[in-house]
Design brief:
With 171 residues, the chain is mainly beta. The protein is 9% helix and 32% strand. It has a four-stranded antiparallel sheet. Strands 2-10-5-7 form a four-stranded antiparallel sheet, with no helix packed on it. Strands 3-9 form a two-stranded antiparallel sheet. It is globular. The C terminus is likely disordered.
């Protein structure tokens, strides 16, 4: 399927920074790099500049997502993932990274890939206050209500937090 791509205006804040690029055909996220070297001790965080600013069309937003390889290999996460770049924002995109590795330092060099940018159409909504919401099959179930893993208490997922706490207290 050949789809037309959305054109997004981009300004290089750093004239040498490479443009965001997709690593593979079909990738949802374009790689963002840092323009500054940084070293993070365990638990430390930093705001890293990417050297680019965007003019997204109205009705779109860009979301800054973590890179799975950095998370798996180095324990690097994004503090506010995904970060939101609104259509009206024209400043440099910056990424808040944190080193979650308990022992090792993490070093970033200039132009290391640090995050990925996903551009999506977003809906603008108006909120209508009502006294009661219509029913659904899920209702108010959340936070593990569908199960899928063994909980701390050793039982299949779907247990409430309260039951796990009371199991611990009884030991």
């Amino acid at each position: 399927m050949n789809r037309e791509s959305l054109t997004v205006q981009l300004r290089r804040v750093d004239p040498d920074v490479p443009l965001p690029a997709y690593g593979h055909p079909g990738d949802a996220g374009a790689d963002l790099v840092t323009t500054e070297a940084a070293e993070l001790a365990p638990g430390e965080r930093a705001v890293l500049p990417t050297g680019v600013a965007l003019a997204l069309p109205e009705g779109y937003a860009a979301f800054v997502h973590p890179r799975s390889g950095l998370a798996a290999r180095c324990g690097v996460a994004l503090v506010n993932a995904p970060g939101t770049v609104d259509a009206g924002y024209r400043g440099e995109i910056k990424v808040i990274v944190v080193n979650l590795d308990p022992r090792e330092r993490v070093r970033f060099e200039r132009f290391d890939r640090i995050a990925q940018l996903v551009v999506q159409r977003v809906e603008r909504v108006s909120f209508e206050e009502v006294g009661e919401l219509p029913g659904s099959q899920r209702a108010e179930g959340g936070f593990g209500s569908t199960g899928g893993h063994i909980s701390v208490g050793g039982r299949e997922g779907g247990n409430s937090y309260a039951s796990v706490v009371s199991d611990r207290e009884g030991q």
